[in-house]
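Write out this protein's structure.
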Amino acid sequence: MLQSRTRWRMTEMSEERVTQLAEETGLSPLLAKMLLIRGVDNKDSVQHFLHDGTEALLDPFKLAGMREAVLRIQEALQSHERIWIYGDYDADGVSSTSLLVHLMRQLEANFDYYIPHRANEGYGLNTRAIDLAKEQGVTLIVTVDTGISAVEQVAYAKALGIDIVVTDHHEPPEELPEAYALVNPKLPYCPYPFKGLAGVGVAFKLAHALLGEVPYHLLELAAIGTIADLMPLMGENRVIVREALKRMQHSQYPGIKALMAVGNIEPQAVNSISVAFSMAPRINASGRLEHAGIAVELMTTDDDQVAVEIASELDRLNKERQKLVETMVKEAEQQLAEKIELYGEVPKVIVLSNASWNVGVIGIVASKIVDRYYRPTFILGIDEATGKCKGSARSIDGFDLYESMTEIKDVFEHYGGHTAAAGMTVSQEKLAELESRLIEVADRVLNEEHFIPCTDVDAACELQDISLKTIEELSLLEPYGMGNSSPRVLIHSAVVAETRTMGKEGQHLKIMLKQNQAAMDAVAFQKGALKDRIADQVQVEVLGELSINEWNGSRKPQLMLQDIRINERQLFDYRYCSDPVQTAVQLARKLNDSIAGAAVWSTTLKEAGVHAAESFVDCLDRQTEDNSSFQEHVKDVIISSVPESAEAYLALAKRYPAMQRMHVVLPKEPSAGKLRAPSRQMIVPVFAHLRELGSWKDEESTLQAISLRTGMSKRELRILMNVFADLAFVQVEEQVSGCTYEMVKEPKKTSLESSSCYQAWSAQSEWESLWYRGTAAELREKLLAPWNKH
C-alpha cells in the first residue's frame, strides 16, 4: 500500500456531451473533455479559445473610468505637466510601471516613476511620496497595480493640487478613493466583461486607449506581470500571454533577453512556466531585498550590456533570497512546533511573527508553510521601533483571505489582496487577537476535509489511449496557468514493470508502467526515495501530466508523475543478496527517514552489531519487551531470516496488523545449508551406505565424508539420523564428545512417512522452498495472505 499525497478530485463530465463536442469540432474526446472542464462548451467558443489572436482584445473604453483617465492624461501631455507613474514592488507592479515608462517615452511625456520601498514604506500610496511628488512639481499621478484602497492618500494628494488616476485590479473596498478616475474591472459598476486582468493588464488597456491601437510592442511586459501575479489564463489574458510568448522568441527588449539568458531559457522554448519560475522570481528579488527600481531599470533599458549586468545582479539577489527563505522557514517551523505543542494540533490558521524576518520574502515563506501544513498561513515581520507588523498571507481551498480579513477588518491598520493571497499591516499588540479571530472564522467555514490537499483531475485514461498525436493535440490548450492548468490525467490499474532512480544522487524516480499491451515511462522529480516503497509487479494508480520525451532523435509519450496510490499490500523481493542482515538494517534506517518506523524480523541482528536502542528496530531479540504500541503502527516489515515455521509466521501477522509493505531480504541459501524435500530415491542410497559403514560419530569430519559420498548436506544428514532413530533404524548413544550412531541389523519394516521427524522434514523443506526458491508471484501470494484475509 501507498497513500497518495492529496485527495484526487475527478471532474465529472457527461460522456454524451464530450462525444457531442468532439464530433462538432473534430477534436479528440480527451481534448473535448479538457475544453468542457474549462467552460469552453460549444464550437464557437472552442474556436475562440484555441485560435483567438489580438483581434479578439476588447475595446479598452468599455472599462469604467477609462475615458476620463485618457482625457486627463492627454491634457497633461498637451500641457507638458509633470506626471508620475506610481507602481508596486512585485513583478506585476514592476511590469506595469515598465509598460507605462515605455508608453510615456513614446508619447514624449514629461514624467518619472516612483515605486515605494517595501520595507521602509510598505505597499501602496503614501503621504511622504506624495509630498515628494509635490516638491518635484508633479500635477498628475497615474497608479498601476495599486491605489484602489488609498482613500486617505488620494484625498491628501487632491488637497495638494495633484490629480490621481487609479489603475488597479485588486478587490475594491466598500469606500472608494475620490480619484480623478478609477479604472478597475472589478469595480461593482464596471461593465467590462473580463474581470481577470492583472495590474499590468489594466495598464496595457490604458496604453491601448491612449494610442488608439493595440500596443503590440508592450505585449511581453503585459504577459510577465499577468503570469507572475497568477491571473487566470483565460479570455484576454490568454490572448495577451500567447501572443507575447511568440514575440519573446525574438524579443527586442534587452532586459527580457538578459533574463532568459541568466535563467538558461532557450528563446525558442520560452513558455508560461519558464516565465513564472525563472523570470518572475528574479524580477521579484529586487523588490524583496533591495528596491524594485532595479528591475524597472532592467525592463526599460535599451542597452544590451546594461541589461546583462542588471540581470546578473537580479540573479545574485534571487540566490540570496533563496537562502534567506530557507532560514526563515526553519525558524517559522520551530515557532509552529511550539504552537502545535500548545494546541495539541496544527492550528486551523497559522499566524507566525518575528522581528528578524525580512518582510520582502514573507509571502514566499507563507507559501512554503502552506505547502507543508496545508493551513491558511499569515507570516508577519515585526518592526520593534514602531510596533507595527507587516504581513503576507496565503490560503487553501475554501478559505477566502480577502473575505475573511474583511470580517475582522477592525484588527488591521491596512489590508488588501485576493482570495488566495493578501497583505496587511497590524499592530504588534493585536497579533494574538488576529490569530484567535482568524481561527474563529476558520471554525465556521472550514471542516476536516478542507485540511486535506486536493488535486483536480481532468480525465482518466488508459495507456493505449495515449499517443504522440494525443499529447500534441493537448498542447493546443497552452499557455498554461491559473484557470487553465496543464491537464492532469489519472491512469488506473497500471502495473509497475520496473523502478529505478535517476540523477547523480538518485534523487529522481523513473517507473515503467504496463497496461495490457501498452507501456509508458513515468518520471517524478525529487521523488527518488519512493523507489523503496514501490514494488515490482504491483498494481498502481498514477496521476500526472502528459509530455513528450525527446532523446537522441526519438520521441515517445511519458507521464510527469505528480502522485501515486497503491491500494494493495506489497512485497519487495531482495532475495539472494550477499549480506542480508546488513542489507536489512540499512533498508530499515533508510525507511525510518521517511516513515514512523520499520520492523526487522531477524534472529541475527546482534551479530550485525545492531543495538536494541535503535528506534526502528523491533525484532525477535526484543520480543519479550512490551512494544505493542510501536508494533500496531508499523507499516514496513523487513524479514532477513526465515521464521521457523508457518505457525511462527502467522504470529508475525498478528504482531504487525497494520503492515503495508513487506521486504524479504535473504541469501541464496540458508546459512545452515539447503534443505531438500525428502524422498525414498534420496534416502535409500544413503541408507545402503550407512549400513555398509555400520557405525559413525556425529563429528564434522565424519559428516563431511558422508556428505561427499552421498550428496546430502550435513543439515539433511542430521535430520535423517533423527528420522532413522524415530523408526528404530539406528541406535543412538549419547556421549560427552557427541552422539554415536550404529545401524540396527534387523530393523522392522515400516514406511518413512510414519516418522513424525520425516513429516516435519517434509513440511520444513516445503516452507523453506517457498522462501528461497519460490517465484516472486508465489511469495507475494503466500506471504501476504494472512493480512489480505483480514
